[in-house]
Amino acid sequence: MQSGTVPAAQGGTAISGTTFAGTAPSTSITSGQLSTPVLTAVQSGTAPAAANGSVAATVSKGDGAVSFTIPQSGLYKMDSKPTAKYVVETDSRFANYKSFISSDYMLQRLNYDPAMTQKRLGDAFYEQKLVNDQITQMTGRRYLSGFDNSDAEYKALMDSGVAQAKSMNLVTGMELTAAQAANLTQDLVWMVEREVTLADGTKEKVLVPQIYLCKASTIDLKSSGALIAADTVDFKLSGNLTNSGTITGSVLTSIQANNLLNQNGGKIGGTGTTSLVAVNDILNQSGTITGGQVFVAAGRDIRNETTSSAVTASTSANGHSWTGSNTVIGAKATIESQGDLTLLAGRDISLQGGAITAVGNAAINAGHDFIVGTVVSQNKGADKSSNQAFSYTDIQNVTSTLSGNNVAVASQGDIRLSGVKVNALSGLSVAAQGNLVVNAVKDIHTENETYNERGDHYNAHSIDETVVGSNLQAGKNATVAALNSAADKGNISITGSSVTSQNGVITIAAAKTVDIQNDMEKHESLKELHSSGHGFFSSTSDSRDYSLLNQVKGSTVSGDQVNIQSGKDIIVHGSNVVGTNDVNLAAQDNINITSAQQTGKEDHYYHETSSGIFSGGVGFTIGKRSITTTDAQQNITQVASTVGSTNGNVNIAAGNDVKVIASDIISGKDTNVLGKNVTIESANNSNQEQQTYKFSQSGISVSVGNQTLNNINSVYQPLTRSTQVEDSRLKALYGYKAATAANNVLNGKTPDGTKAASKDNSLKVSVSIGTSKQQSETDAAQVTVQQSTITAGGNVNVIAAGSGKKDAEGKAVDGDITIVGSNVKGQDISLTAARDVNLKSAENTTNTKTTNSSSSAGVGVEMSAKSAPGFFASGSKANTDGNGNTITQTDTSVTAANTLTIKAGQDINLVGAQAKGETVKVEAGRNLNLESQQAVDNYKETS
Q1: How many Å apart are CA 611 and CA 536, to the nearest integer?
Q2: Which residues, in sequence order, are CB contacts of 160 under 8 Å at separation 6+?
Q3: Same domain for 808 and 932?
Q4: CA-to-CA distance for 566 and 574, rounded, in angstroms?
Q5: Residues 156-194 pLDDT 10s
Q6: What is the pTM for the complete model shown?
Q7: Domain end among 159, 188, 218
Q8: Which end of the chain is more exposed for a tag (fewer CB within 10 A), N or C?
């Protein structure tokens, strides 16, 4: 070592100089010591290209720089009221069973009244979380040296803050100056002012606990770490290098080893060239590899992984027990270069929640697979007592990133990208000799709650998913390729993700299949409630409400120009392929552009039984009543795919068939479609609903009435019923019944239209014992057509060339153009088929079935001022059934602004279709068939 110094470091080893070179069987730089069996300091004129290694280092500036953000977890709630003591308060179900020490302790020791002090960011529970997070980020450890308990550690840090505040004149709310931080003799926490943005967008200044570490704890490394610094650092090891300190060369950092492990906040590299070479593996676990130029090579694997660990806690008090667990995410594993960056591996290169960043170009080459995934963070909590329980789970993905000016990724095996963000400022190339998979990942939030007390029961469950797609983005050209035609290779799959270029051409090329498809999000909710009463005047009810939505989240391929080529099939399902200029799809086999199905379901149930006094009309009943209602719905919605160009042509060419189903082809200029057979058709959206209503009542009824009141009631009842049903026909029937009754009464008749028996309008009172029942059921189903569309600013050319095979008569055996329930629009339109051209309509249908029944029976006595009491017996029974169905046609429409040309080797069939143009040319090799389709509307009611 020349011109070097070795500064003292408490609990660690620090070595600095101009040149540091060494050879050894193995080296471990970790946990406060530099352990090297043989270490020779020599002047090295040049440092050969080297090494593979991972060093994680966090440089503490003494200010504990940590981002304070408003948490989104269900564990916390926000309070933006000016009178609130905290912005963030912990849910009482999880935090009120234990006393957590807070900044109240320090403020009181500083002679402040906590109640009169400036608002703080969080309560005691959240403050301790902030302190713990800072310590983990600054030191890589859960606790500072000498502690194993959060309360004791926080209290000691506050005591230290109070002690040093007096000697250093610290002011509450103000950060320590650089000089003050440099002169600390002990670690401390201090309340500093931070500005936070609340949910409503307003900003507020609050006090936040900030950790400051003294020099003995920070000396440019993690706590108790080691530091090696020189202009040139050159290691040649026949064994392994394990590092969790800092190895930095301002000119060159070169390491050669058998295996290289950089972990727990270790740092390798400086501002110069960094060269890491391993005979076997390089593992960067929550470490940083950095340099002006970075070269990393391994004979086997390179793994860049952000670490995670689980923290669990539990407590119980006052009849409650609480358990919780949280994933603590380590420092992001990072390989970064201020210039170019190269990664070479004999086998696999993998990223798990890590980052690879180059200001210059990034080149990645794997001898086997290149795999990018996420680190899963899981936050769980559960609160239980004798009569209630609540639990939640939050699963979130910490994604990986890859960026550079030009980014080139190549593998001799598969490339699998899950939830990754790739950003190339210029060009992007991703090429696999195996299969290439670009997937989304899902964040998931679930909640469960139950409650039982005095016969009341409540149960709730919910699950909500969020699709987090991969995003491959380029400023200029982007190429995604899998060109190996060997068995089980050469496929490209893009699911719930995007490939985009701002100003360049996107090329997606596969030896086999290109599959661009949607992912699905699940949103589910269930609530069940049972409530019971006791005694005669009481009621018991049960309700259940359930909903489920499976939501389509499509993929997107978007560029200035888009070219997709496949040795087999191209599939675009519930997704979008769009360009500013030309969009070209070419497949050796089939091209399928299809919609995705989004499905929903709802179930609602309510049942109530009650006893007591019930009003009804101008009377009342003492007895029992039961009401049950149900409502079940299911729906399917087609989510279209779109293939389009805003300013250019859309060209779709398949060696076999082309299918476009409930999707859109849009071009600013021409649209050209070529296949053996071409099918452009609609798909069905559907809705089904079933409603039931049941009512029964028994008891003693007392009613008051006369002819006028009876007439009014005869009009009122059907009007009321019309508001209780969903079916439009049934609503109309009840409305008609009310209107007819009103008209009869106004004309001096009874509501049913018969002649009034007498003029007696005296008040009558009746008392009866009896029962009554009502029941109705409605089943409705609707199917509506979702069309495909081809819309061109220029011309539309559709050709079904067929396979060239002929029948005995020399006619083509295939080569059909089939358009069903869809629209084609353009300037000039040409439809040319080797065999038939079929233009057909598609059916929309509705089916409705209703059933209504009622019955009553009773005996009683009737009294009035003008007549003696009379006994009576009554009974009635009625049934009404309704059945209806409609069929309407969605015609196929082919509309040319100029000339429409239709040519067929055999037949041209227009069945429920419209073919329009300024000029229409039709040429059929055999028959021209024209047929209209009729609408159907049937409804029948029986009673």
Answers
A1: 6
A2: 186, 187, 188, 189
A3: yes
A4: 19
A5: 999 999 999 988 989 999 999 988 988 898 999 999 998
A6: 0.73
A7: 218
A8: C
